[in-house]
């Protein structure tokens, strides 16, 4: 058994920690945690809280990062319901191995690397089940810290805010690279390529495989090829966060194109996969982290070390979501049902993009709204300012994050006209 | 800052879960196991893989991590073709037939969830399922706990006991920097020390040593305590001893961090197994509590647990909870939904709760019965030695006192599988296999010293 005692604090400590002098507090009545500051609210999750608190019958939540159907309701896919029916009463709840469900991992690798991938056949991929996309990124960040302690991570501007938290808590230094071009509401490709060229050789880059969050702006296929080529020249390491495979275009193979390009070019990649959106498994925390290695022996070593990182975090990953994923992907009928359902979700979103843009044009907005249909995936970076967003919320009861990100999943045929009208009102030139 | 040092817990009393946490917090040598002394030359050795010869891979120098010692036991057991083999390494409950068990009440809860079409799979809040958190706090602290009534408890759903320990440890101190170069190993201010616990001579508690070590701990130290059914020894303090521990700790301002992985599973009574914790809460002081439903609800792989922090005031509890979110969000964003939903379904319904207590008691009773049967079998064989510790120890595990030669002998000659520290899982025993095990112990003890 052990005691843990605290010595002098280091500069790396977060403000939440007690300064050493508080260790002198003795009376039982005083709290050892009295100095704890209230933490700032999460910017994304705070939006939904505010939405829920609003009594207006016309309120619209386009902050939510979860899919909604055309009635604004959350959806459980039919393939998921069927998988759960097969699990309940039949399968036990024993511990998974530290690295997670083998079946789930196998199917995940096929999705990301290709059904017939030679890397899978050659057993060159070190892969573990992870706690959705967050967990996969965190395992990789911790792995990076432990085994490549001199490395840093380049993160795109902007990105999902939690990416910064993940690599910060893993204590991997971070830099940013140019990505979004506000003027065109598209990709700043030349800025991006410059950053890639100017980064020290062998840098680590976080890339969104498809449906960039929060901008919805993805490189074209040609641009991905150029990026991949430059990565080869610079010997950079690409780490892909793929949270929307299938959900972006409706076709999982198409959404994995960037990864496949890099693989063809001979890169060794890392990849975080999530089933939160494309299988609607959000709260089940189902995901996978994989790292392509030089050979099978290296893959075995890397996997064993990833397990060592997972073990003191949670010992072994949760079984339920993994069972759902592997039942669906292993059963041809269920898998084909899933493909239909994920395409259905993607198509609805694409339809809403069209509808929103058409509505704005019909209202006579002089601004260009092409980016709404050029962007892809769950989110649209509208280009609205925080002040305009505040007006949307205060005057029109429309909730979104203050960076102007609209979750298209929250848009329905029922509210798209309202939404377009409100956006038009707050953006029209005076 | 000097790199942290671990004085390894005396070999047989190594606490696996703690040593996992310790290995996380400290420079770790991948070759150190629970049985060896602390390795202060903590480096990650690298040996070349085929790829590393002229390799451009960033992972070329990476070494393979050692096999998990307990997993190794099950792997060897699985390979053994003998019809009389017994697996006593398993850390999960087994029935008399040696099968895993899903509780009936858990199956009922599962069906209720399936049959409810309005159930969705949305993200939980960062802190988890609110109802689950409240019910979990009530379960361990008692429904009438003053700390709960005064809103002084911050509870967050975590991934079973391990996850709760980890979030608590990370909250108390951020993850230290580490790498595979000794010069990079610094620990931002956290030192880990052991205190004496297990006495091999008596196979019981080294209470004097425990009190001495806690007395000399610096004020403000955090002390990890097993609420009941100490793993791996099965040795718990008595209620009087707990009271003495409590007084000493409070007088020295030592912060208790309880690990409760066996509530209800140890004695068969949820309240009895929570007595140590409730004693500390009753004095109005603060503590941390890691709770697991892996064993007592058989939810192992669902990873269901909770971290509660009992604070000095309601205001502090609110702030502490907000800080816990900052730890959790970059780790996995929010906890898994399924297992917590099952627990909440059971705990909120008094009929299902009662059904659960009966099934829980049945599991505990079977384990207690195995202890008695093993003890009786050794007595009737006249096996030399005092085996009363088998019935004095409590919970899933027994520290037999067998040495590693005897353990190896039992594996080779009798196909009995256990960890080399002599720990056996009573859950892996049945009425049918007790005779075989006692024959093996008898042979090992009489033929090897």
UniProtKB/TrEMBL annotation, chain A:
It catalyses: L-aspartate + 2-oxoglutarate = oxaloacetate + L-glutamate. GO terms for biological process: amino acid metabolic process. GO terms for molecular function: L-aspartate:2-oxoglutarate aminotransferase activity; pyridoxal phosphate binding. Its cofactor is pyridoxal 5'-phosphate. SUPFAM superfamilies: PLP-dependent transferases. It holds the Pfam family Aminotran_1_2. It is an enzyme of class 2 (transferase). GO terms for cellular component: mitochondrion. Its EC number is 2.6.1.1. Keywords: Aminotransferase, Pyridoxal phosphate, Transferase. It comes from the Eukaryota. Residues 58-423 form the Aminotransferase class I/classII large domain. Homodimer. Belongs to the class-I pyridoxal-phosphate-dependent aminotransferase family. In eukaryotes there are cytoplasmic, mitochondrial and chloroplastic isozymes. This is Aspartate aminotransferase. It comes from Miscanthus lutarioriparius. The lineage of its organism: Eukaryota, Viridiplantae, Streptophyta, Embryophyta, Tracheophyta.
UniProtKB/TrEMBL annotation, chain B:
It comes from Miscanthus lutarioriparius. Keywords: Aminotransferase, Pyridoxal phosphate, Transferase. This is Aspartate aminotransferase. PROSITE patterns: AA_TRANSFER_CLASS_1 (PS00105). In eukaryotes there are cytoplasmic, mitochondrial and chloroplastic isozymes. It holds the Pfam family Aminotran_1_2. It catalyses: L-aspartate + 2-oxoglutarate = oxaloacetate + L-glutamate. It comes from the Eukaryota. It is an enzyme of class 2 (transferase). Its cofactor is pyridoxal 5'-phosphate. GO terms for biological process: amino acid metabolic process. Belongs to the class-I pyridoxal-phosphate-dependent aminotransferase family. One of its GO terms (cellular component) is mitochondrion. NCBIfam families: PRK09257.1 (NF006719). Residues 85-441 form the Aminotransferase class I/classII large domain. Its EC number is 2.6.1.1.
């Amino acid at each position: 058994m052990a005691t843990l005692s605290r010595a002098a604090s280091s500069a790396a400590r977060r403000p939440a920690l007690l300064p050493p002098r508080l260790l002198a507090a003795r009376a039982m009545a005083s709290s050892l945690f009295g100095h704890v500051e209230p933490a700032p609210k999460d910017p994304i999750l705070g939006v939904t809280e505010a939405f829920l608190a609003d009594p207006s019958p016309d309120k619209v939540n386009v902050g939510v990062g979860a899919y909604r159907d055309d009635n604004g309701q959350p959806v459980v896919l039919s393939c998921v319901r069927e998988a759960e029916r097969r699990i309940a009463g039949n399968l036990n709840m024993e511990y998974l191995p530290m690295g997670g469900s083998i079946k789930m991992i196998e199917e995940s690798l096929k999705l990301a690397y290709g059904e017939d991938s030679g890397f899978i056949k050659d057993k060159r991929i070190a892969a573990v089940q992870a706690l959705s996309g967050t967990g996969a990124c965190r395992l990789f960040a911790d792995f990076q810290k432990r085994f490549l302690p001199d490395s840093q991570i380049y993160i795109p501007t902007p990105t999902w805010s939690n990416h910064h938290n993940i690599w910060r808590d893993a204590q991997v230094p971070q830099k940013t690279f140019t990505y979004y071009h506000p003027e065109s509401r598209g990709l700043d490709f030349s800025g991006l390529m410059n950053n890639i060229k100017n980064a020290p050789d062998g840098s680590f880059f976080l890339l969104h495989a498809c449906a960039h969050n929060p901008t919805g702006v993805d490189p074209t296929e040609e641009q991905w090829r150029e990026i991949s080529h430059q990565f080869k020249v610079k010997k950079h390491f690409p780490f892909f966060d793929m949270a929307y495979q299938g959900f972006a275009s409706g076709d999982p193979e198409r959404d994995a194109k960037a990864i496949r390009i890099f693989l063809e070019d001979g890169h060794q990649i890392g990849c975080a996969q999530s089933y939160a959106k494309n299988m609607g498994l959000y709260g089940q925390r189902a995901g996978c982290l994989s790292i392509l290695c030089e050979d099978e022996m290296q893959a075995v070593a890397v996997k064993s070390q990833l397990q060592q990182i997972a073990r003191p975090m949670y010992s072994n990953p949760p079984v339920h979501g993994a069972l759902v994923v592997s039942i669906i992907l292993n059963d041809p009928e269920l898998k084909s049902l899933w493909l239909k359902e994920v395409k259905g979700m993607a198509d609805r979103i694409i339809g809403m993009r069209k509808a929103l843009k058409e509505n704005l044009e019909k209202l006579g907005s002089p601004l260009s709204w092409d980016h709404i249909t050029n962007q892809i995936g769950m989110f649209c970076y509208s280009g609205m300012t925080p002040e305009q967003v505040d007006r949307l919320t205060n005057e029109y009861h429309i909730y979104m994050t203050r960076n102007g990100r609209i979750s298209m999943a929250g848009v329905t045929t029922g509210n798209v006209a309202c939404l377009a009208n409100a956006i038009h009102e707050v953006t029209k030139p005076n | 800052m000097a790199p942290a040092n671990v004085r390894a817990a005396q070999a047989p009393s190594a606490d696996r879960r703690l040593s996992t946490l310790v290995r996380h917090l400290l420079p770790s040598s991948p070759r150190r196991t629970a049985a060896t002394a602390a390795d202060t030359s903590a480096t990650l050795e690298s040996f070349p893989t085929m790829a590393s010869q002229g390799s451009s891979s960033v992972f070329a120098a990476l070494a393979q991590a050692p096999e998990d010692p307990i997993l190794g036991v099950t792997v060897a057991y699985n390979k053994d073709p003998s019809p009389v083999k017994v697996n006593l390494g398993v850390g999960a409950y087994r029935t008399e037939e040696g099968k895993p068990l899903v509780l009936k009440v858990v199956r009922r809860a599962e069906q209720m969830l399936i049959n409810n079409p309005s159930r969705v799979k949305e993200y939980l809040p960062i802190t988890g399922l609110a109802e689950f958190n409240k019910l979990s706090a009530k379960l361990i602290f008692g429904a009438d706990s003053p700390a709960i009534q005064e809103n002084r408890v911050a509870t967050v759903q975590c991934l079973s006991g391990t996850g709760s320990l980890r979030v608590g440890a990370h909250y108390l101190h951020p993850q230290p920097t580490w790498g595979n170069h000794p010069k990079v190993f610094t620990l931002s201010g956290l030192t880990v020390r052991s205190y004496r616990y297990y006495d091999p001579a008596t196979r019981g508690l080294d209470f004097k040593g425990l009190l001495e070590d806690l007395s000399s701990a610096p004020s403000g130290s955090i002390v990890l305590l097993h609420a009941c059914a100490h793993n791996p020894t099965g040795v718990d303090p008595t209620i009087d001893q707990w009271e003495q521990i409590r007084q000493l700790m409070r007088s020295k301002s030592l912060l208790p961090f309880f690990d409760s992985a066996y509530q209800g599973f140890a004695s068969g009574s949820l309240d009895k197994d929570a007595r140590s914790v409730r004693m500390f809460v009753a004095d109005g002081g603060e503590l941390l509590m890691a709770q697991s439903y892996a064993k007592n609800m058989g939810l192992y792989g669902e990873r269901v647990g909770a971290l509660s922090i009992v604070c000095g005031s309601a205001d502090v509890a609110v702030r502490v909870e907000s800080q816990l979110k900052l730890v959790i969000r970059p780790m996995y964003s929010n906890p898994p939904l399924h297992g917590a939903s099952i627990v909440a379904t059971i705990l909120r319904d008094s009929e299902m709760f009662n059904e659960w207590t009966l099934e829980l008691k049945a599991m505990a009773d079977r384990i207690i019965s195995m202890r008695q049967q093993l003890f009786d079998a050794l007595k009737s064989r006249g096996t030399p030695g005092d085996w009363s510790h088998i019935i004095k120890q409590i919970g899933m595990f027994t520290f037999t006192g067998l040495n590693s030669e005897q353990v190896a002998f039992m594996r080779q000659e009798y196909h009995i599988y256990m960890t080399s520290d002599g720990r056996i899982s009573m859950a892996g025993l049945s009425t049918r296999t007790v005779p075989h095990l006692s024959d093996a112990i008898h042979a090992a003890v009489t033929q090897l010293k």
